[in-house]
Amino acid sequence: MRIVLLGAPGSGKGTQAQRLTELRGVPQISSGDLLRDAVARGTDLGIRAKAAMDAGELVSDDLVLALIRERLSRPDALHGFILDGFPRNITQAEALTKMLGSLGQPIDAVVLMDVDAGSLMKRLTGRRNCARCGRVFNLHTSPPNADTPCVDGTQNHDLRQRPDDREETIRNRLEVYAAQTRPLIDHYRNLGLLRVVDAQGDVDTVFERLESAVKRAGPARSQRRMATRRRTAAKRTRSPRRQAKKTARRPLRRKPVTQKRAVKKTQRTRASVKRTSKRGVKRARPRRPK
Ligand SMILES: [Zn+2]
Fold first, then answer.
1. Nearest-CA neighbor of 215 among 104, 113, 108, 100?
2. Which residues surround ligand 1, an ion (CB under 5 A)?
3. Count of alpha carbons within 13 angstroms of residue 265, beta-carbon side
4. Cβ atoms within 10 A of the Cβ of 254, count?
5. Which CATH class is domain 1-27+74-115+168-276?
6. Which one of 1, 38, 57, 129 has the fewest beta carbons within 10 angstroms of its own beta carbon?
7. How many whole angstroms from 261 Cα to the centroid of ligand 1?
8. What are the extents of the domains in the chain?
């Protein structure tokens, strides 16, 4: 199972990936975690990444790909992986395909955790944390209850919203994400790899959907059939001899007259005959006597 996981902030992507990891025993590989880990361990790649980050530059795609490649060589990634946070654009997607191809481990599916923008806003803007006990709540999905008392044992939490959880900031974050991801979605859809999972609903239902999407991993049957058709069509037009033959043959071909067509033709003729005769009668006015 080799998949790329796509999903907006607040889509529940992280939670679902974690479950998939536990159940299937394949690691979740997040490019962000890989970078932080490499920097912390001071590996060769980590030192290079840190230099770029300290200089305020973006870490190059090559470096991230090298980190992913190194991570995939570890034994736990033998049976697959869930890639998260990479690729973020077409260039990265193409580089990733190339790298995985060279390893003989192509992606089976790209799973999009789909949540509509309104619900995302609701989930993200509902986040509150208590200034006294430090608990994190969500007014919509996990509000304070009897199991989550504050320091004084009551329900009187001092709920605050973080500045980056404000509606304006979140809307901006979601827009940036959508603009970034749209081309990627199209790219993978064209390759027949995209699986869209409805990520609305409770965690268990969404996980069931994710599981069945992953089971169907690999190009969908209709996509495979289309790819074959495209290849056959391309082969046909590519062969100049065949093309020449085809053009030569064309003028000679005529659609054979079937029984049904023949009958129709007769009917049509009869009808038109009738019509003309009627008109003829009408036109033939009785002559005025002289
Ligand atoms: Zn509290």
1. 108
2. 130, 132-133, 150, 157
3. 6
4. 6
5. alpha beta
6. 57
7. 83
8. 1-27+74-115+168-276
Q: Phi then psi for 23, rounded to 5 degrees?
A: -80, -40
Q: Which of 69, 122, 173, 189 is catalytic?
A: 173
Residue 140: predicted pLDDT: 85
Q: Examine the residue annotation and report whether 173 is marked as an active-site residue of this protein.
A: yes
Q: Is 286 helix (H, G, I), strand (E, B) or coil?
A: coil
pLDDT of 202: 85
88 is known as an active-site residue: yes
Q: Kindly name the residue from 50, 88, 122, 171 that is annotated as catalytic.
A: 88
Ligand 1 centre and the CA of 137: distance in Å?
10
Segment 124-143, tens digit of pLDDT: 899 899 999 999 898 988 89
Q: How far is the CA of 161 from the centre of ligand 1 (A)?
A: 13
Predicted pLDDT at 280 = 47
Query: Is 215 assigned a catalytic role?
Result: no
Query: Cα of 164 to ligand 1 centre, how many Å?
Result: 20
Backbone φ and ψ for 114, nearest 5 degrees, come out as -100, 120
* Separation of alpha carbons 106 and 100, rounded Å: 5
The pLDDT of residue 10: 84
CA pair distance 9, 14, nearest whole angstrom: 9
Residues of the chain where predicted confidence (pLDDT) is lower than 70: 216-290
State CA 44 to chain mean position distance.
34
Closest residue by Cα to residue 10 from 117, 82, 136, 86? 117
